[in-house]
Each structure stands twice: as structure tokens, then as C-alpha cells.
């Protein structure tokens, strides 16, 4: 099938590449010539494990190409939109890119012949407030594109595991207004549905709402366990044991119940706020979602609060080593990362901060420049530090040499935002060890 994917950001690139990999002829389109030039030079504008190799292979095999020329959509039967929908100043989703793409599409498609339902489908993959797909459809129809179907196909990709999530989805959700659009998308997805994964067809609004509801549920689990972990700290209970204690109940399960320094990234914070925006617009009270957001904002301060409790309010003259800056491992993404809140708090109290992250340092350097010192190696950043703070659970931080750490740190204090270590073991080695919800404040 001939496919166009508009937007070569995270979602667009993964979508374009995986559809090329399954045998389609795909054109990735972006108005940003810089991004296209990066891809054409054999690199990627984002980091995702395995993606570069797949892009390169499909480009070589001529199934995947990139361009800034919007007229490429004229050849495509399916046109996916994967442009950004960032948070606006008011906290709602900013849809200006979606409308701009819609208008550009109308210009290209309006003079093409009507070949019947499902013959040309525009599919929004970006996460958009409920009602957006229908508005896009009305806009396209009003601009002379009555022959174009609009479908919603929310993505459920996790950064760092996006290729697997795309190629082995738990489910594919499609919102349509005419069944033929669902049929052609089912054909497109069939190579990924071999293992009896459900292909769920519903209305545009239900598909849009499915995406928000999934992320809201996941974010709620995180804020829930983070809140319980605070209580654990107060009573000397260990959240790890509690998690095991609840997870065997299959109604609860073990997943997504790891406490930490708060969720970050490009999805959860933005989507929860978009839900709050939809609540405001419709006069629907969203008390739980507000609480999920509030708990998360507070949780981003949990590590700093533990540091202040140990060292006192004034951190002048103290140096801290930070392991992990990305909002989670296996990505260089620092959007809404809890590490940034922590860095701001430490700097504001006069501390010096030395950081290490396997992938995210260039992005952090762009913001903080020489306000931080950057270390290419985890141990390098410990030298002369008064404490080590771990924010992101990269694999290489899981089993460090504590003797080396003790030798490099000026004071043996570890603040572990991801509960990586055994508290007893560290205390036996003479560390002051603070984790999340493991019975110490
Ligand atoms: C998420 C959803 O998982 C995905 O389905 C959706 O399409 C986009 O949003 P992503 O943002 O890539 O994906 O990250 P994810 O792995 O879900 O983690 C989100 C945040 O939650 C991270 O900051 C992570 O550290 C935090 N988290 C996750 C916890 O604090 N505890 C957990 O138990 C799980």
C-alpha cells in the first residue's frame, strides 16, 4: 500500500518505518527541512533503540523515503498524521499543527477523484482531544474533500520499546465513520496481528477517549503508589513488600506500581492536563485526575526533600552527583523529567551539581549550559560529591561497585529515587541510604 506519514518526530518516524518494514511504500513528510536533512544524512532527530538500523534498511530497499514536499500525499491511499500536539499555555492541547496539516491536505486532495469509501483515508495518530478527528473531517469536507475518510488510530508506544510496541501491539484501536476505512486499516495492520491481537473498531470519539483513558489509568497507578510510599516512609513499612503483597491479587497485578520521583515524559503530564482541559470545557469535575497531577508535581520534590532533611535547608558548599536525567531509561528525552525539578531545587539552594546520563546529557546541556558539570562516566561524576542521587533507573546503575562509590564520595549518602538497592546491604556498608517508601524519610 502507498502510505504518507506527516511528521517525522517520534510517533511519525516509528509509524513510517514500521509500515515500510511490513512491505508498504512509505513517504515521511515534514515541513522542517532540517529534520529531513538529518535523516537523509544517515542519522535520526531522536534516539530510539533499533530505529536507525530499520530506517536505513528500508531507505536502502526503497520502501521508505523522506521529503518536505506535501504533494507526496497525492499518491497515498493512507495518510497518517503524527505531528506534535504540545501543551498550550492554558494546559490544553495545542492543535495548531493538526489544523495546518489539515489545510495543507485539503489543498492537495480536493481535485482528486472520488474512488469510493475507504479509498483515501486521513488518520490521526497524534494524541488529540476528543472531538478533534470529527472537526478535521468537517474541515476537510468543507474544503472540498468529501471523498476523504478520517480515522483515529491512537498510538500506545513506550519510548525505548516503540518498535516492539508497534510491531507486537497489545491491541490496535481504530475510530471510523465508515466501515470501509476500518477494513483498509485492518489489512494494513494484519502483519502485526498474527498473534491474535485484537483489532478494535469503534467511533472516532471512543478511539480518542481510549487513548486518554489508558494513559490516565497508568498515571493514576503511579500517583497512587507514590502516595502510598509516602505513608510507608512515615510508618517504617517497605513499599516493595507492600507491592508484592498486593500484586498477587490478579485484579491489582504488579505492573506500573513502582514508586519513583514522579512520572515525566511527553505523554502522561500533557495528557492528564488535556483531560483536565476537556473537563473544564464541558463543566465536568475531574477530581481524581486533578489529584493525580497534584500528587505527581509534589512527588517530583521527594528526592530534594530527603536531601534537605539529611543536609539541612542550605546546601551552599555541597556538591551532588546525579545519575540519570532522562525521564526514564533507554531514551534521551528529558521532557517533564523529574531530574530537572531536582536540579533546579539543588541549584537554587546553592549546591553544585555533577551529572551523568548515558544518553540525555546533550539535551540537559542545552538548557543548563555550564551551570552543571557533566561526566561521561558514572563514577567520574562522584568525585568530590557529598551525596549521590539516582533519578533514572538505567541498567548500568543497578549493580555498581559500592566500595568505589564509598571511596569517591566525600560523605556516604545515597538518595535512590528508583529503589534500586537493598537498604540493609547499604546500611551495613556505612551508607546513609534513602529510597522511596522503604521506611525512611
Ligand atoms: C507512556 C505510555 O506507557 C504509552 O502507552 C503511551 O503511548 C505514551 O505514554 P512513555 O511516556 O514512553 O509511554 O513512558 P512509560 O514507560 O509509560 O513511563 C512513563 C513515566 O512513568 C516515566 O517517567 C516512568 O519512570 C514512570 N513510571 C512508570 C513510574 O514512575 N512507575 C512505574 O511503575 C511505571
From TrEMBL:
Listed GO MF terms: NAD binding; UDP-glucose 6-dehydrogenase activity
Gene Ontology BP terms: polysaccharide biosynthetic process; UDP-glucuronate biosynthetic process
Domain UDP-glucose/GDP-mannose dehydrogenase C-terminal: residue ranges: 321-423
Keyword Oxidoreductase: yes
Enzyme class name: oxidoreductase
Positions contributing to NAD(+) binding: 30, 35, 85, 127, 159, 270, 335
Key words, A-Z: NAD, Oxidoreductase
SUPFAM superfamilies in UniProt: 6-phosphogluconate dehydrogenase C-terminal domain-like, NAD(P)-binding Rossmann-fold domains, UDP-glucose/GDP-mannose dehydrogenase C-terminal domain
Positions annotated as active site in the UniProt record: 267
SMART domains recorded: UDPG_MGDP_dh_C (SM00984)
Assigned EC number: 1.1.1.22
Source organism superkingdom: Bacteria
Reaction(s) catalysed (UniProt annotation): UDP-alpha-D-glucose + 2 NAD(+) + H2O = UDP-alpha-D-glucuronate + 2 NADH + 3 H(+)
Positions that bind substrate: 156-159, 211, 256-260, 264, 328
Pathway named in the protein's UniProt entry: Nucleotide-sugar biosynthesis; UDP-alpha-D-glucuronate biosynthesis; UDP-alpha-D-glucuronate from UDP-alpha-D-glucose: step 1/1
Stated family: Belongs to the UDP-glucose/GDP-mannose dehydrogenase family.
Known function: Catalyzes the conversion of UDP-glucose into UDP-glucuronate, one of the precursors of teichuronic acid.
Designated name of the protein: UDP-glucose 6-dehydrogenase
Originating organism: Telmatocola sphagniphila
Amino acid at each position: 500500500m502507498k502510505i504518507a506519514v506527516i511528521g517525522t518526530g517520534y510517533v511519525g518516524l516509528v509509524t513510517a518505518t514500521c509500515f515500510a518494514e511490513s512491505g508498504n511504500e512509505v513517504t515521511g513528510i515534514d515541513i522542517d527541512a532540517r529534520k529531513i536533512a538529518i535523516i537523509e544524512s544517515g542519522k535520526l532527530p531522536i534516539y530510539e533503540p533499533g530505529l536507525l538500523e530499520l530506517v536505513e534498511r528500508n531507505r536502502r530497499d526503497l520502501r521508505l523515503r523522506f521529503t518536505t514536499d506535501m504533494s507526496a500525499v497525492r499518491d497515498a491511499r493512507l495518510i497518517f498524521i503524527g505531528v506534535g500536539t504540545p501543551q498550550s499555555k492554558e494546559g490544553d492541547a495545542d492543535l495548531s499543527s493538526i489544523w495546518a496539516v489539515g489545510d495543507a491536505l485539503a489543498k492537495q486532495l480536493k481535485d482528486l477523484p472520488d474512488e469510493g469509501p475507504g479509498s483515501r483515508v486521513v488518520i490521526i495518530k497524534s494524541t488529540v482531544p476528543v472531538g478533534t478527528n470529527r472537526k478535521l473531517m468537517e474541515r476537510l469536507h468543507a474544503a472540498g474533500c468529501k471523498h476523504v475518510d478520517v480515522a483515529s488510530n491512537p498510538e500506545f508506544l513506550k519510548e525505548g520499546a516503540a518498535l516492539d510496541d508497534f510491531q507486537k501491539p497489545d491491541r490496535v484501536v481504530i475510530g471510523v465513520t465508515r466501515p470501509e476505512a476500518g477494513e483498509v486499516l485492518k489489512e494494513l495492520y494484519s502483519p502485526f496481528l498474527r498473534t491474535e491481537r485484537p483489532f478494535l473498531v469503534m467511533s472516532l470519539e471512543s478511539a480518542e477517549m481510549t487513548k486518554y483513558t489508558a494513559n490516565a489509568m497508568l498515571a493514576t497507578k503511579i500517583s497512587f503508589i507514590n502516595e502510598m510510599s509516602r505513608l510507608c516512609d512515615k510508618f517504617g513499612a517497605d513499599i516493595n513488600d507492600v507491592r508484592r503483597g498486593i500484586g498477587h491479587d490478579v485484579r491489582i497485578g504488579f505492573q506500573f506500581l513502582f514508586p519513583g520521583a514522579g512520572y515525566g515524559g511527553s505523554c502522561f503530564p500533557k495528557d492528564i492536563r488535556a483531560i483536565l482541559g476537556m473537563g473544564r470545557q464541558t463543566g465536568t469535575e475531574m477530581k481524581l485526575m486533578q489529584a493525580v497531577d497534584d500528587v505527581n508535581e509534589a512527588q517530583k520534590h521527594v528526592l530534594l526533600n530527603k536531601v534537605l532533611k539529611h543536609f539541612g535547608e542550605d546546601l551552599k558548599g555541597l556538591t551532588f552527583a546525579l545519575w540519570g536525567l532522562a525521564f526514564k531509561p533507554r531514551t534521551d528525552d528529558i521532557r517533564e523529567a523529574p531530574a530537572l525539578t531536582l536540579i533546579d531545587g539543588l541549584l537554587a539552594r546553592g549546591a553544585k551539581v555533577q551529572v551523568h546520563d548515558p544518553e540525555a546529557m546533550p539535551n540537559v546541556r542545552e538548557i543548563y549550559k555550564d551551570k552543571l558539570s557533566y561526566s561521561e562516566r558514572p563514577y567520574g561524576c562522584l568525585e568530590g560529591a557529598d551525596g549521590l542521587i539516582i533519578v533514572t533507573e538505567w541498567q548500568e546503575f543497578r549493580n555498581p561497585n559500592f566500595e568505589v562509590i564509598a571511596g569517591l564520595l566525600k560523605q556516604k549518602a545515597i538518595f535512590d529515587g528508583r529503589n534500586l538497592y537493598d537498604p540493609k546491604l547499604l546500611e551495613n556498608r556505612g551508607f546513609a541510604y534513602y529510597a522511596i517508601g522503604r521506611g525512611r524519610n
